[in-house]
Specification:
Shape: globular
Mean pLDDT: 86
Low-confidence stretches: none
Strand content: under 5%
Largest sheet: none
Order of helices and strands: HHHHHHHHHH
Structural class: mainly alpha
Helix content: 55-70%
Radius of gyration: 19 Å
Length: 255
């Protein structure tokens, strides 16, 4: 199979995935917008009541961080164990196993794009007028898409053999949630802790997204290069792991 055929499979299966998910609930795709908004409302109420001083435009500040985080977190949580549910299919059809996590990430990315569009409209009506720097968001979204896929490929390739990794990942994501600068500017953290936290790629994604969407500034390209290199390393490792284990998945017991 060539790249064009792989892309066709990913697009087709992503559509099927989204259609199936939409049909599982009465509100369908409306939940793709409502869920992050409910998530935002809960944390907004909590943090505006326990904070002594409020960040300017805290709703917009929080919403940007949460939307990018939710895309990252939900994609990793849902995709890391996807191979376990496809083992029976892998026994019957000769198809690269790495396609399954990529399809799951792609479905989550479509939902993110819908929510992100709502975010842009919200920012516009609350005084943040779009400008040419908004085009940099395409770069950031693409880099985060690569980062998510890289992490997911590494995890999904080994989770079928060591299912307990899912528990570790869930707890790591919970920890990252509170140190990714979602609720406060990372610059408020004193050194040297700030430098350590800045190694987190999601800190750089969220910070630069706010710079573009709230401050009308271009992103720090060195930050984005750092995340891109990390993403490509993860993708390379993940693909090598899938290549190594491709013939081993069918020997496992599926669900």
């Amino acid at each position: 199979m060539n790249l064009k055929q792989y892309l066709a499979i990913i697009v087709f299966k992503t559509r099927v995935e989204l259609k199936t998910e939409r049909q599982r609930t009465y509100l369908g795709f409306i939940w793709w917008v409502l869920e992050p908004l409910m998530f935002l409302a809960i944390f907004y109420v909590i943090f505006t009541n326990i904070r002594d001083s409020k960040t300017d435009h805290f709703v917009q500040f929080l919403l940007i961080g949460l939307i990018f985080w939710q895309w990252f977190k939900s994609s990793i949580s849902q995709s890391s164990s996807v191979i376990i549910y496809q083992i029976n299919l892998l026994r019957q059809v000769q198809i690269p196993a790495w396609l399954f996590p990529v399809i799951k990430v792609s479905a989550n990315t479509v939902k993110f794009v819908i929510v992100f569009t709502v975010l842009l409209f919200f920012l516009w009506v609350t005084g943040f007028v779009p400008n040419l720097n908004y085009l940099y968001m395409l770069e950031i979204i693409f880099i985060q898409f690569l980062l998510i896929n890289g992490i997911v490929l590494c995890l999904a390739s080994v989770v079928p053999f060591i299912p307990d990794i899912r528990v570790i990942v869930d707890n790591l994501l919970l920890g990252m949630f509170f140190v990714s600068g979602i609720f406060f500017p990372i610059t408020l953290i004193p050194e040297p802790v700030q430098s350590y936290l800045s190694l987190n790629p999601m800190v750089k994604i969220i910070q630069n997204s706010r710079e573009i969407l709230m401050n009308n500034n271009a992103p720090n390209q060195m930050d984005l290069l750092y995340v891109l290199v990390m993403a490509l390393i993860f993708i390379f490792i993940g693909m090598q792991l899938f290549k190594k284990f491709q013939n081993s998945y069918a020997k496992l017991s599926g669900i």
